[in-house]
Amino acid sequence: MSEEQHATLVAEQFDDQVQQYQAASLGMWVFLTTEVLFFGGLFASYTIYRYLHYPGFEIGSHHLEVLWGATNTAVLICSSLTMALAVRAAQLGKIKDLIGLLVVTLIFGLIFLFIKFAMEWRHEYLHGLAPGVNFTYAGPHAHQVEMFMIFYFVLTGLHALHMIVGCGIMTTLIILAARGAFSKGHYNAVEIAGLYWHFVDIVWIFLFPLLYLIGGRY
Amino acid sequence: MGTVTTTTLQQPQAEEYRVHYLNAAYGIKSWLLTTDHKRIAWLYLMSTTFFFIVGGVAAAMMRLNLISPQGAIVEPATYNKLFTIHGTIMIFFFLAPVVPTVLGNFLIPMMIGARDVAFPKLNLLSWYIFITAGMFLLYSVIAGGVDTGWTFYTPLSTSYVDTHVVSAAMAVFISGFSSILTGLNFVVTIHKMRCPGLTWFRLPLFIWSLYAASLIFILAMPVIAITMVLVVLERLFHVGIFDPALGGDPILFQHLFWFFGHPEVYVLVLPAMGVISELIAAFSRRRVFGYGFVAFSSFGIALLGFLVWGHHMFVSGQSVYAGIFFSAMTMAVAIPSAIKVFSWTATLYKGSVSYEAPMLYALGFIGLFTIGGLTGVFLASLGLDVFLHDTYFVIAHFHFIMVGGAIMGYMGGLHYWWPKMTGKLYPDYWARLAACIIFIGFVLTFGPQFILGFEGMPRRYAMYPPNFQFLNIMSSAGASILAVGYIMPLFYLIWSLKYGADAGPNPWGVKGLEWETASPPPVHNFDKTPVVTEEAYAYGAHPAPVTTAAS
Amino acid sequence: MLCLLPLLPKQASTMAPAVDHLLWFVIGISIFFTALIFILLLVFAIKYRRRSPDEVPQQIHGHIPLEVTWTVIPIIIVIIIFVWGADLFVRENRPPADAVHVYVVGKQWMWKLQHPEGPREINTLHIPVGVPVELTLTSQDVIHDFAVPAFRIKTDVLPDRYTTEWFTATKTGTFPLYCDQYCGTFHSEMRGDVIVMTPLAYERWLSGGMHHTESMAAAGAKLYESYGCITCHGTGKAPPFVGLYGSKVRLEGGQTVIANDAYIRQSILDPSSQVVLGYKPIMPTFQGQISEDQILQIIAYIQSLETTPGAQGAEPTKETK
User: Fold this and answer.
1) Is residue C86, in this structure, part of any structural domain at all?
2) How many domains does chain B divide into?
3) Do A40 and B219 touch (CB under 8 A)?
4) Is the Cβ–Cβ distance between C13 and C167 less than 8 Å?
5) Do B252 and A41 touch (CB under 8 A)?
6) Under-70 pLDDT residues of chain B
7) What residue ranges of chain A have pLDDT lower than 70?
8) CB within 8 Å: A56 and B180
9) Domain match, C187 and C232 both
């Protein structure tokens, strides 16, 4: 990279590329910390209500389709793999591989969202398990089941919102990569987006057992 | 005794032709699309002042209403909306943003020798998010108001009022993101953009306190965000997250709310404390006594502040053991604040004290914050809180800290750095007069409220038994004086923009990187990146003072 | 002039003087430190005022012994205040066993009070002087708070659960009571009076009222039949009530709980959540069909059913859930 091209990649408030990279990285870590607290309030509330209303939560959990949830878990784990490989590709300057891997990651994300909305949420709505819009469950512990379903929708909905943002970020990265914005040594955005993607994945890793696997299925 | 050398920069051009951040570009787009932290500070100054006026009008109407036991000017339903709007605006749209986004935005890069914050575009986005939140809030006011109190307790707010809770809760939710992004920006800036030689323990105390406040923004604001989301969902979809009929728990709401709410009030006061450290040092020409203790006390307050939230819930039905834990923690958090007060006082000892307006505000802060903090100890004590909870004693306590403390800190900082921000001097006589009027008006307004609290008058009462009337009238009379004090700066500060004398780079003759550059500063703050070789507040230091590569 | 203003309400309960002692101690500490800071600031600001524009004073960075002192002394003071206040609080949370009970239901925007002997009141509470009184409170809607400043006591009043508050009045007279948790439009009108009478006058007032209303237990007995509880609980299909109140109950699922007010209330409103060991979960819920006042009457009825006449049941522990 020539001096001028290198210089134009550093924003004017920074002294050099290293400072810019470190600032962007720290910024993403701080942002992820706020996200931990954001989801944390929900997780804390969920935990308290699950302790207080275990029977209803177990029934609610058994109404979810474990197969879809497990599939989505596998999809996200694969997407984290492809994301990590994409960062590696950028590190090595292999831009074609980078674009390909980002596209695959994006597709995995879209598959996740499709399963979540078109399969699971639609299924729960049609079966009268959607509090506030269509909740008709009248079996034992109905109120507790409703509480479980509220948390299910809020937790997975918030997570899905973050996935949508993540897909938007992937799309942006793909476009930027196609325009030649990245190269060996200049791929900060890819790495930082990777941090975000992995975080969203980790949230799901917690959500899946908490929501789908209450009480076992034997 | 040495002499203070004020660095006079070589001005290559006459003052009226010098290019600086205010005249480098003109037009509305250059302001609304700016990424210059100094201009963004002005955007925030305009908007927070606007909200202060709205919140202040609500307060004025409340105090007018309370002149009569039956309510002098409004119905109870309206009064309830007034105190809700007053609290929500003052906390989320004035006090939380004002010192960080006005003074912090302007000064952090300058105090650390940087050209801007780490993420200037994010900084501008924060302001637009703030304005969006403000639109939601103004909508809820104009559309008819909200009457849940700024604390939105459930199930009242979720199931029993038919006022504009959703838009108000959305306003709070959105404003939280503005603060989170500002806090994020500040943390990264302070970590990564300090100029050469500026180690952590050479930082001005204002930076330490803003860093601590930013940590609170990052950790506490997300919790109020999710709590407001849940309240909105409960209202919109009629689901019962906090509704007992569904097995929901209204006390869970209180825990979530106050887990945010208590650290939030430290966010409101820590930056102002940072300002006071700067003012005390500047106007006694002394390094703040016990710099290390004071720096760490900011972190102590921030950290301990996360462990005390249950002291808002001593009589809520919470367990006795929880109450005992939270009471002990609350006593603990009083100690770092006490250390600050003693350290500031000791800084004056054998100092060289002058009495310009900023110093009057600083001295007022220390006195009033001491009272506010001590009255917090009453409330931290379980046996006394049972008596005083939700009475006017609590109102007086937090106004002594928020108004006698935080707002006076902001006013002191505004007056101190006004010459730097504008390049103009305001008439110190009027400024000092306003400071005195504010102090007197404040004490007359809120002093009687301690007694009202002892006598048992509950808070959030639109009407009250006649035996409380005398003290209420005294408090309202004091409020009218306080209002005069707040209106005065509007006049002389605006006057100074056109008619004030040129300030020069260092009108106060003080130490600090921000005073080593011109007033108003150039667009990139410094002509060359400074190199720091001495401690903060190095009055009387030998050998070299702070250098810029140019000199 | 300040002594002409009543600083504190009359001390009208046994706890009030104790609370006021701590209050005055903290007031004293506060005045001391406030005066100290104000005086020091004033003295330093004047004594060390700048005398020439170029003056630079001696730089004092710190003084460890001083800083340690002014950290340790406040720590000691706050520990004292903490322990003292915690002790008061624990005492305020331990009602005496022989307290007279009164049941309070708060709703927007009034207080409904019921004495076990029958008389009901709105926004007024008649009690005898010198006798411990324990209130059991619940709300029909939002969170309220029952505050009596003269007794230095208050507690939040919550929907769907019971809170308690106790006091022993030491003076006859009328003392204001306030709702002290914002509860909506007419929160500031949700006020009333506590009327403390001599024991004789109280008995007369009580029996005057009793001519017109039946006792809570009698009302509860009527509800026991009219709501159909008797069809199962009186025939062996469901756990019997005799001797139930205050006893230990073993549930399906292994837990053991105490049959207190909260337990009985939950059994009425959400029976499937705690089924007694050996019984089937067939009890229907009465959520939405029975009022808080009626639940309290049923509790009073159950409480009146001792195993042997005249014997004291197990100490009723008013645990709130």
Assistant:
1) yes
2) 1
3) no
4) yes
5) no
6) 1-16, 246, 541-551
7) 1-8, 217-218
8) no
9) no
Residue C96 scores a pLDDT above 80: yes
Using alpha carbons, select from C275, C106, C84 the residue that is nearest to residue C183.
C106
CATH code for the domain in which residue A130 is found: 1.20.120.80
pTM attached to this predicted model: 0.92
CB contact (8 A) between residue C41 and residue B348: yes
Confidence of residue C316 (pLDDT cuts 50, 70, 90): very low
Same domain, C174 and C252: no
Task: Give a yes or no: residue A66 inside a domain.
Answer: yes
Block residue for tokens 């000691």: C76
Q: Residue B228: which of B148, B168, B166, B169 has the closest Cα? A: B169
In a domain, B149, yes or no: yes
Whether a cis peptide bond, with omega within 30° of 0, leads into B200 is no
What is the arithmetic mean of pLDDT over C144-156? 97
A106 contact partners, CB below 8 Å, separation of at least 6: A167, A170, A171, A174
Look up the domain containing B441 and give its range. 32-516
pLDDT for position B9: 54
- The residue segments making up the domain with residue A158 are 19-212
Q: With respect to residue A58, please indicate whether it lies within any of the assigned structural domains.
A: yes
Considering all CA atoms of chain A, what is the largest pairwise distance in Å, rounded to the nearest integer? 71
Question: Is C311 domain-assigned?
Answer: no
- A131 is a domain residue: yes
pLDDT of residue B541: 62
Under an 8 A CB cutoff, do B184 and A41 touch?
no
The set of residues, in sequence order, having a beta carbon less than 8 Å from that of B201 and lying 6+ positions away, is: B291, B292, B295, B535
Express each pLDDT in A46-103 by its tens digit: 999 999 888 889 999 999 999 999 999 999 999 999 999 999 999 999 999 999 999 9
Q: Which residues of A touch B117 (CB under 8 A)?
A: 13
Is A51 part of the contact surface with chain B (CB cutoff 8 Å)? no
B400-416 pLDDT, tens digit per residue, is 999 999 999 999 999 99
Is C311's pLDDT higher than 50?
no
Interface of B with A in 330-359 (CB under 8 A): none
* Statement: residue C67 has pLDDT above 80: yes
Domain stop point among C181, C210, C239: C210
Q: Flag if B245 and A34 touch (Cβ within 8 Å).
A: no
Q: Mean pLDDT over all residues of chain C?
A: 89
Contacts of C150 in chain B (CB under 8 A): 456
Its domain, for residue C74, covers 9-92
DSSP string, B319-336: -HHHHHHHHHHHHHHHHH
CB C301, CB C224: distance < 8 Å = yes
The pLDDT score that the predictor gives to residue C214 is: 85
Q: Is B384 on the interface with C (CB under 8 A)?
A: yes
- Sheet containing strand C192-197, edge to edge, reads C124-128, C192-197, C173-179, C144-148, C153-157
Nearest to C70 by CA among B337, B278, B288, B298: B337
Chains adjacent to A (≥3 CB pairs closer than 8 angstroms) = B, C
Nearest CA in chain C to B324: C86
Closest residue, chain C, to A55 (C-alpha): C273
User: For a pLDDT cut of 90, what percent of chain C falls above it?
Assistant: 71
- Tally the domains of chain C: 3
* One domain for residues C254 and C192: no
The CATH number of residue C177's host domain is 2.60.40.420
Q: Is A153 among the domain residues?
A: yes
CATH number at residue B44: 1.20.210.10
CA-to-CA distance for B278 and B205, rounded, in angstroms? Answer: 7
ipTM surpasses cut 0.85: yes
Q: Is residue B123 a contact partner of residue B37, using CB atoms and an 8 Å limit?
A: yes
B92 within a domain of the structure (yes/no): yes
Residue C289 lies in a domain: yes
- The total of structural domains in chain A comes to 1
Residue A6: predicted pLDDT: 42
- The residue in chain A having the minimum alpha-carbon distance to the alpha carbon of residue C287 is A143
- Report d(CA A45, CA A39) in Å as an integer: 10
Q: Are residues C130 and C191 in the same domain?
A: yes
